[in-house]
Amino acid sequence: MKSGNILLSLFFMLAVAGCGGGGSSSSTSANTTTASTTSPTSSISTTTTSVQAAINVLPITVNGAVCNAYQNEPCVDVTVCTPGTSNCQTISGILLDTSSFGLRIFKQALNVPLKQVSTASGSLAECVTFADNTTKWGPVQTAGVILGNEPAVQVPVQVIDYSFSSEGAAVCYNAEKSPSDAGFNGILGIGAFIQDCGSTCASSAVGEYYSCNGATCLGTTVSTNNQVQNPVPFLPADNNGVIIQLPAVPAAGSVSLSGSVILGIGTQANNSPSGVTAYPLNSVGEFNTEFNNVLYSGSFIDTGSNGLFFPSPYNASSGPYAGLLQNCTGTSNPYWFCPTSTTSLSAVIFGAATNAIGTTLPFQIGNFESLTASSSNRVFNDIGGSPNAGGNVFDWGLPFFLGRSVYIGIYGKSSSLGNGPYFAY
Predict the structure, then answer these.
(1) CA atoms of 320 and 326, how far apart (whole Å)
(2) DSSP strand E in 47-177: where?
(3) What's the CA gap between 287 and 18, in Å, rounded?
(4) Quick one: pLDDT band at residue 8, thresholds 50, 70, 90?
(5) What is the pLDDT of residues 354-396, one digit of tens each?
(6) Which domains are present in the chain?
């Protein structure tokens, strides 16, 4: 996405209940090599960062030198290897996404060969749809994946390749073609589930996975073992969840910032939870938010969304609050909020469990056009918008994570905070 556009991460179009397993892990460490550049079509380099101090820490940069295509863009480095070998490549500019599952890499950024996942009649491919109506198309291949300094795990990943099979564009409408189209080299989905579709795609051909033979691609079922996998659950020890730690930013924003993904919850000295409240998630990773006397059951936390997104506040007697959170008037930013001054609001969040106790969560919305008029500041805690006319969705995007340690517990895994799926802060 280009600067100023709304970016929303993968929204759960398909049920993921029963995402319980699949894939295999490897404890073999791999030597890392560095890709010198990406394809000329990419504007994002693939250089390594410094070695992490702890084995289970994956550094995050938000709008750093490598990943800065739009506001509030969090990225990490991921090392991928030819399965079972030390032929590896560290790729930077990978968007960190807590509401999708699995690793997706643009072909132009990938320099090591991976192993194609086969079906009974051809090669497995996938079309995933994101909430901004873009899609990612390409084959499913097996890779050794290294997060931080953890051992490599071998999991299916998606290679984003618009040219894969001549039917690709037809079956996957509006597919992005290159890193420069998307603003990143790939996506690391480390949300609360293991597979990206689960039992739904295992039992039905629902238009997400395809079996391709030459130019022909037909919808297919796919076992959970062969679906694109979140690599975190396959780590030897730090596999029950993640902690996203990002510092706070001032009211006017920051040029960039650095933080961490800490792998595991209560598995190491650096990931023991203290003083946090856990909120259970439902079978599609959602919880409840009450805002302006409306209950939004489709609520989720998402580093991959670059703002707070929800329907404009509405008063039954007078209509929308024209003076409170009006949308921007500029033609390039019609879905962002542009209040006349920074507006303090609050919502109550509830876990998905029956009779859940709510917690009030204050937040602010500033004037998007005024905040982003600066040529230098790119990270903001108070940008938001209303990208659709309504719906029962409240998207707690990247601003929710600033100044917090946010825990995400993975389905089927337990910690002192409870059994996944949940989030906590």
Answers:
(1) 8
(2) 57-62, 74-81, 88-97, 101-106, 115-116, 118-119, 122-129, 135-146, 153-160
(3) 18
(4) low
(5) 777 899 999 999 999 999 997 799 999 999 998 764 578 999 9
(6) 26-45+52-234 (2.40.70.10), 270-424 (2.40.70)
